[in-house]
Amino acid sequence: MGDAMSGKQSGFLELVWRKEYECGHPTVDVQHRHLFKLGNSLLDAVLTHQPKPDIERALDAFIDDVANHFMSEEQALEEEHIGVAESHREKHRQLLEKAEILRANFGEGAAGASEVLSFVVYDIIDGHISNEDGSWFALLKN
């Protein structure tokens, strides 16, 4: 995952999109790049200690975009007749469940910056986009 992150000039983290993250499906690729952008906005809000309502709005936007992206990705997999669609859908369901718990916990003060950062960087960008999605990218390119 280290390749997807870099230090900004201000010393904070930034998710960096790279060409090798592309899967070859135009809609999925655009959405993945957009998730990097929203992820960076959320990371910036957390790391610069923005007011809680601002962080909550950024978290909501990120989670909503993740949910919309997952629906599009599932459609792309089904259209391509790829056998991983059902197991991938279950992984999406689990991530969205975790996102809803994070959203609730953050709102109640039971989750903080480290949980938000972990979800964005490790669960969505590294764990899902870079690793899980990467496992079927070659299937879309064929």
How would you briefly describe this protein structure?
By secondary structure, the protein is mainly α. Helices cover 73% and strands 4% of the residues.
User: What fold name stands as the CATH topology?
Assistant: Four Helix Bundle (Hemerythrin (Met), subunit A)
CATH top level?
Answer: Mainly Alpha
Per DSSP, the total helix count is 4
Overall tally of domains: 1
User: Which regions have little confidence, pLDDT < 50, spanning 5+ residues?
Assistant: 5-11
Task: Please tell me what the overall shape is.
Answer: globular
| Widest β-sheet, arrangement of strands | 1-2
In the CATH classification, which architecture applies? Up-down Bundle
Mean pLDDT: 85
Which quaternary structure do these chains form?
Answer: single chain
| Spatial extent as radius of gyration | 15 Å
CATH H-level homologous superfamily name: Hemerythrin-like
Tell me the total number of β-strands.
2
Description of the molecule:
The chain is mainly alpha-helical and 142 residues long. The protein has a single domain (2-141), classed as Up-down Bundle (Four Helix Bundle (Hemerythrin (Met), subunit A)). 73% of the residues lie in helices and 4% in strands. The chain has helices at residues 26-47, 52-79, 85-108, 113-141; strands at 5-7, 13-15. The protein has a two-stranded antiparallel ribbon. Helix 1 runs antiparallel to helix 4 (113-141). It is globular and about 45 Å long.
